[in-house]
Amino acid sequence: MSEIAHNDAAHHIVVKAHPIRLYLVVWAWLFVLSAFSYLVDYFHLTGALRYTLILTFMMLKAGLIVAVFMHMAWERLALVYAILVPIGAILAFVAAMAVEADYTFLTRLAFFSGGQS
Amino acid sequence: MDTAFTEHRTREPAGGLATIVDDFSADQRAFRNVSWGKAMMWIFLLSDTFIFGTFLIGYMAARMSTTEPWPNASEVFALEIAGRHLPLILIAIMTFVLISSSGTMAMAVNCGYRRQRRATAALLVATAILGATFVGMQAFEWTKLIGEGVRPWGNPWGAAQFGSAFFMITGFHGTHVTIGVIFLLAIARKVIRGDFDHGRPGFFTGRRGRYEAVEIMGLYWHFVDLVWVFIFAFFYLW
Fold first, then answer.
1. Which residues cross the membrane (chain B) (predicted)?
2. pLDDT for res A5
3. How buried is A12 (Cβ within 10 angstroms: 0-12 exposed, 13-18 middle, 19+ buried)?
4. Residue among B70, B141, B24, B212 nearest A81 (CA)
5. CATH number at residue B200
């Protein structure tokens, strides 16, 4: 029980140390980044530029939410790695399915076109 | 606590990889300084990440492999406001509403640790109202699209899978937001009643109430916002 109390006290200090201003700054940044993502669509940007910008703003927003709002920046590394490393499995799944979907697309092109392609 | 454990704690490694190895090889608990409830919420959120991850992967595979043109989300979700045609405007507003709710949630957690009971409860209720607004706008969007003829098996603009991906992904996300709103109101009630100031045990447990419950609630809420960041990028903007 004393261990939990000790942990609580330790955590108490860590969280208390953040001024409310930090959250307001992150909030403002999330607004700005969201506005930028919307502008990507508003100005009809296309091609590699569009996808790069979408992904950049997405990763910046996700990083701010996880690191600051979810306090991951101040968690012990054991927890951080236990959560972040398995995400790699999703990325591997994305890669595998992208290859698979591309193959399906090519086969459909070949079969649906009546053998003309 | 036994002395072996305290001794162990005193010789903590400097940091980095050594800390991780040391924590995971601990004989009692791997996640030190992390309470049971918080570790469990993180692990739940990881499993939820996999659920939404597979949804988005399924959507990617359907969109990449179809030979039909994919409907242009920018136009599908456009609205006429005051005579002006604005692409994707409703989704942009929903994004700002959800981000604002994350901001009020983060401040609620902060106020909770400062033991400001009224401010915490007020911010939690504000978060719940913003969340409910989001769900309301999503209901409006669903109604509009269903009225225009979007179904899980087809739509007027192109690839049939657009509807199934849309209803599945936004529906699951909206369910998460709805559950979050209920969760928020439940925690707000506990806060205003003073449960966390007096350590009153919860209904299902003998554990004493603590303001950490607000932080654990916050983890869930921020996760819902986080998922929306990915849905916004991949489904609406791509």
1. 39-62, 88-109, 121-140, 160-187, 217-237
2. 42
3. middle
4. B24
5. 1.20.120.80
Q: How far is A82 from chain B (nearest CA, A)?
A: 9
Distance from CA of B208 to the nearest CA of A (A): 12
Distance CA A29, CA B103 (A): 11
Residues 6+ apart with CB under 8 A from B59: B161, B165, B168, B169, B234, B235
How far, in Å, CA of B27 to CA of B5, rounded? 9
The confidence band for B5, taking pLDDT boundaries of 50, 70 and 90, is very low
The answer to whether the Cβ–Cβ distance between A3 and B87 falls below 8 Å is no
Do A21 and A58 belong to one domain? yes
Mean pLDDT over B48-61 rounds to 97
Is pLDDT at A26 greater than 70 in this prediction? yes
User: Looking at the domain assignment, is residue A7 inside a domain?
Assistant: yes
Residue B14, pLDDT score? 57
A59 touches chain B (CB under 8 A): no
Out of B3-17, B74-88, B210-224, least confident range: B3-17
CA diameter of chain B: 74
Domain extent for A95:
86-117
A69:B222 CB<8 A: yes
Q: Does A52 touch chain B (CB under 8 A)?
A: no
Are residues B35 and A18, on separate chains, in Cβ contact within 8 Å? no
Q: Answer yes or no: is A81 within a domain.
A: no
* pLDDT number for residue A1: 36
Helix %, strand %, coil % of chain A (to 5): 85, 0, 15
Structure tokens given for B51 = 């659920």
Q: Is A83 on the interface with B (CB under 8 A)?
A: yes
Nearest to A105 among B32, B46, B65 (CB): B65
Q: Are residues A18 and A48 in the same domain?
A: yes
Q: Is A111 on the interface with B (CB under 8 A)?
A: no
The overall pTM is greater than 0.90: no
